[in-house]
Amino acid sequence: MVLQSLKNGLWLxxxxxxPKACFWSTASGGLIVQSVSNDVYQNLAVEDWIHxxxxxxxxxxxxxxxxxxxxxxxxxxxxxxxxxLRLLRQKNIKLARRRSGGGTVYHDLGNxxxxxxxxxxxxxxxxxLKLIVKALKALRPQLDVHVTDRYDILLDRQYKISxxxxxxxxxxxxxxxxLLCNADKLVLSSVLKSPYKGLKSNATPSVPASVKNLFEExxxxxxxxxxxVIAKEYATQHHIDHHITLINPADETLLPGxxxxxxxxxxxxxxxxxxxxxxxxxxxxxxxxxxxxxxKVNMDVKHxxxxxxxxxxxxxxxxxxxxxxxxxxxxxxxxCPNETTTLVTTLLRACPQDDELHNRWSVLCENMxxxx
Amino acid sequence: xxxxxxxxxxxxxxxxxxxxxxxxxxALKFSHQQRLFRTSAVSCGQIVQFKLSDIGxxxxxxxxxxxxxxxxDSVSQFDSICEVQSDKASVTITSRYDGVIRKLHYSxxxxxxxGKPLVDIEIDASKGVAPEEDxxxxxxxxxxxxxxxxxxxxxxxxxxxxxxLAMENNIKLSEVxxxxxxxxxxxxxxxxxxAKQTGAxxxxxxxxxxxxxxxxxxxxxxxxxxxxxxxxxxxSRPVAFSGKDKTEPVTGFQKAMVKxxxxxxxxxxxxxxxxxxxxxxxxxxxxLKPLAEIRGVKLSFMPFFIKAASLGLLxxxxxxxxxxxxxxxxxxxxSHNIGVAMDTEQGLIVPNVKNVQxxxxxxxxxxxxxxxxxxxxGQLGTSDLTGGTFTLSNIGTIGGTYAKPxxxxxxxxxxxxxxxxILPRFxxxxxxxxxxxxxxxxxxxxxxxDGATMARFSNLWKSYLENPASMLLxxx
Lengths: 372, 476
Description:
CATH architecture of the largest domain in chain A: 2-Layer Sandwich
Oligomer: heterodimer
CATH architecture of the domain at 269-473 in chain B: 2-Layer Sandwich
CATH class of the largest domain in chain A: Alpha Beta
Helix content of chain A: 25-40%
Largest sheet of chain B: 7 strands, mixed
Shape of chain B: elongated
Largest interface: A-B, 54 and 47 residues
CATH superfamily of the largest domain in chain A: Bira Bifunctional Protein, Domain 2
Radius of gyration of chain A: 24 Å
Number of helices of chain B: 11
Catalytic activity (chain B): N(6)-[(R)-dihydrolipoyl]-L-lysyl-[protein] + 2-methylpropanoyl-CoA = N(6)-[(R)-S(8)-2-methylpropanoyldihydrolipoyl]-L-lysyl-[protein] + CoA
CATH topology of the largest domain in chain A: BirA Bifunctional Protein, domain 2
Domain Lipoyl-binding (chain B): 47-122
Strand content of chain B: 15-25%
Largest sheet of chain A: 6 strands, mixed
Number of strands of chain A: 16
Organism (chain B): Pomatostomus ruficeps (Chestnut-crowned babbler)
Number of strands of chain B: 21
Low-confidence stretches of chain A: 1-27
CATH superfamily of the domain at 269-473 in chain B: Chloramphenicol acetyltransferase-like domain
Domain Peripheral subunit-binding (PSBD) (chain B): 157-194
Distance between the termini of chain B: 105 Å
Number of domains of chain A: 2
Order of helices and strands of chain A: HHEHEEHHEEEHEEEEEHEHHEHHEEEHHH
Mean pLDDT of chain A: 87
Number of helices of chain A: 14
Distance between the termini of chain A: 47 Å
EC number (chain B): 2.3.1.-
Structural class of chain A: alpha+beta
Radius of gyration of chain B: 38 Å
């Protein structure tokens, strides 16, 4: 019953405590909401929620959000191919997989996210991007920004300041895009560079581009100013008041079911397990004692788990029983350094207590873990 | 014409044993004589090719990225079928029909075309389809009385398949009560009507979600069976328990546990338990906690327990030893690498603090902090997790008093610490006082350790903790 009345939009207007008692008094339907949270999972969950529960027939929605440092990959991408996972873990930068397609982006508070919700029929990305350009030009008329046919927004004809992605469902759709205001470009370029070699997959690859912050073009620009001018343009085009409603993604009464959506987006099965099948074919250069061993490794990874694993070790380098135990343990386990570390250290407990053996085992396992 | 159709149908039947003929609506006009043959050649429903609908923005092709269903699965209207991608847009394609998936026209990463078939769905004939393709308007069977049937002035709604069933059984649709949407007459309604008329017992009609339709068999599902059940008329509806067993493979952490515990089983364990009065230690920790905080370190009880254990191991080194595979040699380990059992989201892990014998209580606290933060972030390294010689498990932080811990090979002893409780005890003067009591449960490898050794070690450890000042005498 809650969702029923929600579809009329009235309930939402009451809960959001907007000054307007009823949205239907306006000429055309539109709603601008902004998230108070900087948590990427919570914000992605809000997108899911609006997509699944709101009736966009009478009222389109613009959702504004910003995240604390995070890397967001597209629905069908491979995180190992797209970013430096080791660096992410070290720097405590979150990794999220969104439900829309497209490529990988780095978010921090200097980057703003805009999501345009419409019915499936009214899905129109160019219009949305033109709206943004119009807003930017209204703020700074001398800004050289334009939309490309790849749905990017370029600054000075060469620097990408916005990337786009979209999600279409049965009755509703959304188009979201980024806008670089003042993001940390150093961190951006270092995390979006993958160190993993030998990966082969059909996952959607990202197209790297030179980026620039709008702040670099005009230091007077802030994220708040940009959010405001875009909201104003949206309000004008939809004939609604220039009013931004704040929502809290942790509010389960306002958005019933949101905490489940948030949890799902954080599960390993979603973030890593949804990676399309890929193979790893590389050579470990293992430094052991005074020599360097070249060890060929081949692995097939499906749903984020190792399906097949082959390590081409010199004969008798490890006792054959132990080697087969290692391969057996790795097969079916997650392609994940933490899980692999636990497995290999546990296997060691049941081994003969031989220093030489332990050293070899450690060297091999350390190298294997580096692949993940 | 009819006979010609039958022949072509039979040839199709033999060539395409996997697929069934795709019938158009005219096929439903088959006369009665051909019915039996035709139904034995096909399954009970009609195959519809579900085409990929328009994506918008003039897009003509997409890439299939993920299938949510496979051939043979039942789907309901609006269930997700697959995920396709086109130019940065990810699209969820949902089913327009209730039915069973008979064929997937594309594999993962294939290019699919808008307007071309995506999947073949076999529609359960008694069910309605999505409004876009409502079969209500199609011309019904040839017999006059079955066209334009009226119940109370309303036009009767029924699919051609239902009309055929009624006609074959000489039932007037006007006499049947429809239970479907808009009083539509469903196959079940015809069967119910029949049952009441003839008193015959008929099988409940198969619902697509529960019974997978007959694929390769050739029985006639609609015909009444001899040993079928009576259609039930429930008075009270008991709550149906729809829980199902769920089987998953053992992988990752669980697999690791299986290996460790199977190896541990080979060790003959014996246990020894005691209670420790920590009243003095509790007070000492309260005094030292702020000092540690100034240095940026959280001080728990564990550093004290670990250091006391190491002092004890200096006196009883057999507890810090390892027995080889054939039980031929005992190796007395020089380093006291004391493991601390940690409960993480994924399961139990045991990192160890290296060389406790040369560490101060503060050093141990620092190292524990480091291991704990790495452990909760899932970033412990292999060196943190290997080389342990003795383990303490502080299960008391979760709860419990006495436990029966399992030794982690290649070690030979382990201690489980219960929770600290405030209990009444007698002091030296025979008065009842409040004491902070903790229980400890030791397990040791009975092949090389005897009860007396364990008891003496435990007493020594206990004495250090009950009277922390005595630790100062023996600290190295």
